[in-house]
Design goal:
Keywords: Signal. This is C1q domain-containing protein. It comes from Emticicia aquatilis. With 330 residues, the chain is mainly beta. It contains one helix and 27 strands. Among the domains are: 51 residues, no CATH class; 138 residues, Jelly Rolls. Strands 15, 16, 18, 21, 24, 26 and 27 form a seven-stranded antiparallel β-sheet that branches. The longest helix is centred in the first third of the chain and has 16 residues. The chain is elongated, with a radius of gyration of 38 Å.
């Protein structure tokens, strides 16, 4: 009996003093370690017993969990934690401090299988296949599925399709009273009216300068760029009518000229006249231009009065408004 007790004490002392290695036989699927119970199975603790991790089973499923109030991390190769489950349920991929229920660092790839790749957003009822789907329509296009149909799509060539605007050829669109995008029947010709928010432009003697027309009174077809190049671009071939009003500082000497140039500063048309007196001089000019689609029109001015002159903004007073306007004739 004393020999048995001594052997047990030796095994216990050896177990607590050394790492424990279990070496099973090499038979496939042979049991290595088996714990039959409901509740905690394995329990791995820090030496101070503050952090614990292990296994737990109930009558329904098995759980890999922490046994203390600490997050559960996942790593491979004894490396940095790659996945983290916080105690509040937030799950992080590629981070250890997730702030949302699913918090992912870097891009995510969703692969196509039986169905095309994408993400479902459920309704409040969380019914199956209810709500909206954002993802691939096919291998060449992506879009939005809602209301049991694809409502919006764009393909890899950049072509956009909107189901509510179905039809062939060019489709003029606009917004209804609710802000919805709708097709407009018939053809909509471009028309615009612009001026400058600057109080005045100082133009040196013998110089030429573009007028930066950054204030839009209206622009029916969004054909005027009022933020970068300050130019009208013809959306289609045809004849366009343009009107210009420029208010010059009073000076009777020399000529005043309005010049239209394209996006390459190539000359398109011009008009010059001479002030009749030293009063503010309002110069008006109208012209018709036959333009091809994509041709832009910019407004330039020049003067040779012998001194610097101010060009007063059409934006500041209705008397001079607008500086530049136009529309398509045919």
């Amino acid at each position: 009996m004393k020999k048995i007790v001594s052997l047990i004490l030796f095994v216990v002392n050896f177990t607590f003093g050394q790492s424990l290695t279990i070496t099973p036989n090499s038979t496939t699927n042979s049991e290595v370690l088996k714990i039959n119970k409901i509740g905690i199975g394995l329990d791995h603790r820090t030496t101070n017993n503050i952090v614990g991790v292990g296994t737990y089973v109930n009558g329904t499923f098995g759980i890999l969990q922490t046994h203390t109030n600490h997050p559960l991390g996942f790593a491979t190769g004894n490396s940095t934690v790659r996945l983290m489950l916080q105690t509040n349920g937030n799950f992080g991929v590629g981070m250890t401090d997730p702030q949302y229920i699913l918090d992912i660092k870097d891009r995510v790839r969703i692969r196509t299988a039986t169905n095309t790749a994408g993400i479902w957003f459920s309704k409040s009822t969380n019914g199956i296949d209810e709500g909206s789907f954002f993802g691939n329509i096919n291998d060449a296009s992506a879009g939005i599925w809602i209301g049991n149909a694809w409502r919006f799509g764009v393909n890899d060539a950049g072509t956009v399709s909107i189901a509510s605007l179905a039809g062939t050829g060019t489709r003029p669109v606009g917004a209804d009273a609710s802000g919805n995008l709708v097709a407009i029947s018939g053809t909509v010709n471009p028309a615009f009216s612009v001026s400058s928010s600057a109080q005045n432009l100082v133009l040196g003697n013998g110089s030429e300068s573009q007028i930066y027309l950054n204030f839009e009174n209206f622009d029916i077809t969004n054909s005027f760029d009022n933020s970068n190049y300050y130019q009208f671009t013809a959306p289609s071939n045809g004849v366009y009518h343009f009107t210009l009003n420029v208010a010059w500082q009073g000076n009777v000497t020399g000529k005043r000229e309005i010049i239209l140039r394209n996006q390459n500063t190539t000359y398109l048309a011009s008009f010059f006249s001479y002030p009749p007196n030293n009063q503010m001089f309002l110069q008006n000019y109208s012209v018709d231009l036959n333009l091809t689609a994509g041709t832009s029109v910019r407004v330039y001015v020049s003067q040779d009065s012998g001194t610097n002159l101010n060009i007063y903004s059409a934006y500041k007073t209705i008397v001079y408004e607008p500086i530049f306007s136009g529309f398509k004739i045919n």
